[in-house]
Amino acid sequence: MKRTKWTKKATLLLAAVCLIFVSVQGAVAPQAAGDWLLQVDGLPVYRELYAYFLTEALLDPAYAEAGADEVSREALRKEVTARCVAFVAINSELRNRWQVLGQQYKLQAAERTGFLWRTFGDYYSTLGISKQTLALVQTGKANEKQLFLAIYDAGGVRAVPEQQIKDAYYRGHAAYEGLRVFRTVVETAADGVTARERPMTAEESAALKGKLDVIAAEISAGKDFFAACEEHAETLSYAAAGSAEIRKSDPDFTEAEFESIRQLSPSAVRVLEFPGFYLLARGVDMGESPEEYYLLGREETLWEMRGAEYRSLLSDLKSSYHAEENVAAAKALLDAWEWKSNAKDAG
């Protein structure tokens, strides 16, 4: 396996372009020496950015009551420091590789920023956090995804061969056209109003299976799949047929059940039995429509293949950065914080 080398010298100057404007006054004013809360390898992190990561840290129940004692506050400061270091490290490494944030990620960051500002803008403003800083942080989060692709996607130092990604995707996904028919019966109580649902008896379940076998035979004989399903919908009390894609990790199916669906043929209709329902279905050849299936799930599959390794690499990267804390300034900020009222699910 090729080695991923983390380098920083050329990076920090470039990262400074992203961070130097973050200030209390709106991310534009020059900073005095005492305004920074942290320096990460000499790069200052000012109050506004620090405050944002403080709001994030306070979402963790472990730090929600951090105002209670000095030990808790110190743990909180360490957590905020770790988040700031991660931010600097990832943004720096991406720029060191001369990687540009993809248009899709730019759009996601912009949309997320807009949502946060519309929803929590007043809250952030009271904390001295500007929309510009929200955009900076959301772009930083997108950069973490971009760095992953820079390492593992085509052309990366640890690029995963395309065929391996395809094989993993098609092993872990299946698509079908079909419908679920639940093996339950709705009964009306003696009062004529109250209804209850019960599981079918063995005889009722077998009768339902027989009816579904008839529909499967009709479709196999040439009848349109959806027309045949619709024709029997009222008598069998099931929802309309449709297309579905499932993953191997879908909690509704065991691994064996998933494989039974993945092995369905597009040219044959089968009735599969699952706990609580029957599935009348035929397979879909996902390879014929890569833009609808594989291309949409490719990146997620790549993360499933290399996500754990990437997190380990990031841990190594972050540990290579040294953070110097302005303890007095950090403590002053924490002293002024409205602990219980400031923690919102706004990250």
Write the layout of secondary structure elements.
Elements: H1 9-19, E1 36-40, E2 43-46, H2 47-57, H3 70-96, H4 103-126, H5 131-152, H6 162-172, E3 173-182, E4 184-188, E5 195-199, H7 202-220, H8 225-236, E6 242-247, H9 255-262, E7 270-274, E8 277-283, H10 294-319, E9 323-325, H11 327-335, H12 339-342
Antiparallel strand pairs: 1-2, 1-9, 3-6, 3-8, 4-5, 7-8
Structure description:
This protein has 347 residues and is an alpha+beta fold. Helix content is 53%, strand content 14%. It has helices spanning 9-19, 47-57, 70-96, 103-126, 131-152, 162-172, 202-220, 225-236, 255-262, 294-319, 327-335, 339-342; strands spanning 36-40, 43-46, 173-182, 184-188, 195-199, 242-247, 270-274, 277-283, 323-325. The protein has a four-stranded antiparallel β-sheet with strand order 6-3-8-7. It has a three-stranded antiparallel β-sheet with strand order 2-1-9. Strand 4 and strand 5 form a beta hairpin. Helix 1 packs across helix 3 (70-96), helix 4 runs antiparallel to helix 5 and helix 7 (202-220) runs antiparallel to helix 8. The protein is elongated and about 75 Å long. It starts with 8 loop residues before the first helix and ends in a 5-residue tail after the last helix.
